[in-house]
Amino acid sequence: MEKRWSIKPESDEETINHLSEVLNINRVLANLLVQRGVTNYDEAKAFFRPKLTDLHNPFLMKDMEEAVHRIVKAFNSRERILIYGDYDVDGTTSVALVYSFLSLHYNHIDYYIPNRYEEGYGISYKGIDYAADNDITLVIALDCGIKAVEKMDYAREKGIDFIICDHHTPGDILPNAAACLDPKRPDCNYPDKNLSGCGVGFKLMQGFCRFNDYKESQLYNLIDLVAVSIASDIVPITGENRILAYYGLEKLNSNPGIGLRSIIKIAGLEGREITISDIVFKIGPRINAAGRIDAGSDAVDLLVSRDSGNAGLMSKDIDECNETRKDLDRNITIEAHELIASNPELLSKKSTVLYNKDWHKGVIGIVASRLTESFYRPTVILTESKGLATGSARSVEGFDLYKAIESCSDLLENFGGHMYAAGLTLKIEHIPQFQQRFEQYVEDNILPEQLIPQIEIDSLLHLKDITPKFYRILKQFRPFGPGNMKPVFASKRVFDYGTSKCVGKDKDHLKLEIIEEHSAAIKQGIAFSMGHVVDHIKSNNPFDVCYTIEENVYNGITTLQVMVRDFKFEYTE
Length: 573
Prior knowledge:
- Helices cover 42% and strands 20% of the residues.
- By secondary structure, the chain is α/β, with parallel strands linked by helices.
- It has a five-stranded parallel β-sheet with strand order 3-2-4-5-6, with helices on both faces. Strands 7-8-9-11-10 form a five-stranded mixed β-sheet.
- Helix 1 packs across helix 2 (27-35), helix 13 (276-293) crosses helix 15 and helix 15 (308-341) crosses helix 17.
- The two termini are 26 Å apart.
């Protein structure tokens, strides 16, 4: 699929010059900083050297005082406390963090993860009944609950208080809980609206520490869990999330918790620097697989484990779940591709809404993501669960999926999520009408360019400027992720040095050596799955290339290479 390049305009000239001078960096790096909202020396210092002391006061969050006081009351009254969280990575890391911290100071505490297939997403009536049956009078709900209005009323009838820690968009009515912590509450003035669910749980524990004069170092010892949640839940790595991810990665690389250490080992990440990308593609999917295939509580059991031997055994079980998950999502993705490719009507639509009662509920979110990548349009994948159609939805750059689903809310039993990812449940007989109305909303509101994959290019760059010093500074922009993506560069009118060739078992990758006119700098590169353009590369005509810059270690020697994202072949002699 052809991609369009969007090259960001250069930022304010005066600011770029100022940063370049005071930081002793070139204009390209200064421009990258301005793009990220860094305009002076102090902001640059905060960006390059994040500090835990720069985290916001947790009591700036609405209801924080009420939440902390309720936990203190439970401690003093020896109440039984239940830590409740969703079955995905954000939910299970949230539960692991809050449970691990509170259990350092209190014994009457347990945790609960709802079963994806029996209870579904969020707070369940079964979970509330479990609390009532076990004499639990306080539940701390993490990464869920902000829309559980009726369930909170049910819990009140049972004599159970809830503290809700969520980061999803609230409905018009807030649940009647002891406290509702959610930076997205319209009446919440907390400075950072982009925390993960685990991040909100972290802030609650931070507030609890400060109220009780506990050492926050005990909490920071769990910060690797927050980094895993931030990366896996795809929240912006800006503001507090940048600080938490920075120190969480530091902990993950130097001294991870026993459970995470076992996952790192089984994922083959030992002995190398772990990045946000490694969490997204290696660590997160294994944690997620427990809830997708078996039980999310297995992931929490592992994450809170204090026995390396047991953790090793549990991580093997989770790894097997992940292998099963990969087989399921691969097969369902193939089926879905064939459905669309064989139906001209489906191919011509602006959205994808597919239903198959036999598809595995645990992987439909992954399938929705893969189809969005393939056909590049808002996508909803539905299957049957407990007599209803339940589904996951994913969006494309710039299109608000949540609003599209909300426009069909009268057809839905429930829904929730973000701009780019959401979940929904509806009656099976309403699927045709939902398909029609969802498609109509997308057709009426999506811009034509939003249906074409876009590569956002941060800056033009000459190949000769890719130096070790340039890369050393570029590395300090990490951790990369939404809001601070790994910079993508473009170089125009480059040439094959004469040595580029196809490589790989099927010769489907390109190993490059490229140069620019009037420069002796030869840069190596790799273009995966682009062997089909080798004739263009070898034609002696100039071409444009966009790429990220990576380190390549071979035989103990480290070199810089360009990791190609795309080519443009528009020049002819």
